[in-house]
Hints:
Helix content is 23%, strand content 38%. It is of the alpha+beta class. The chain folds into two domains: 2-91, Elongation Factor Tu (Ef-tu), domain 3, CATH 2.40.30.130; 96-238, 2-Layer Sandwich (Threonyl-tRNA Synthetase, Chain A, domain 2), CATH 3.30.980.10. Strands 2-3-7-6-5-8 form a six-stranded antiparallel β-barrel. A four-stranded antiparallel sheet has the order 9-10-15-14, covered by helices on one side. Strands 11-12-13 form a three-stranded antiparallel sheet. The longest helix has 25 residues, at 93-117. The protein is elongated. The two termini are 35 Å apart.
Amino acid sequence: MDALYLGDPYMNEFEAELVSVDGREVVLDKTAFYPEGGGQPCDTGTISCGGMTFRVVSVRKNGGIIIHELGEENSAGELKLIIGQRIKGKIDWERRCKLMRMHTAAHLLASLFHSRDGALITGNQLNLERSRIDFSLEGFDREKIDARIAEANGLIQKNLPVKFYWLDREEALKTPELFKLAAGFKHAMEKIRIVEIEGIDRQADGGTHVSSLGEIGKIEFLKAENKGKSNRRVYFTVK
């Protein structure tokens, strides 16, 4: 299956072929819908074919297959009539764009906490209204958090470019700083996608991102929590 969002996160409409239907679960030969994973929520939107439009309410990956779940009002019986035909998919762009901004902001903050404080990511969850990152930090210092967010906003004002590319697994694993998760990189894949904020950060990542830091807007600190001996949770949003 061709995951179109990996090559173009700004793609919000696409055409594909309907491969299979199981109840309200639909598989396409390619898709721009991002499936939930890595702390990033899935895309939502619509699939249209033969004059009918169906809501896509959830997207997940099962092995190498991306499964689109349709709204309860959609009829699987009607869908079976159009298997093999071309469909048009449309992403909820407002949702996708907000999550892209949140995701790139999370990478920027993770990079600064890593480079300045040696912190690794122990958990994360992106959402539309607020997102969080958990860090392996010994000290719980509000001044340190404020300083990192201020530095991130300063870099956002420079509007540095964000790009992605692929590296062979063997080559990527030679560069430990590409992997900022405390749990390590456990995915068995021959090529690893790298997201790079020019001059600031490089991370292995399969999510969607903006193409320049200026698109983030501004990172705002919301709150911080102590989640254990050396686990600090930082909540933020983008405006």
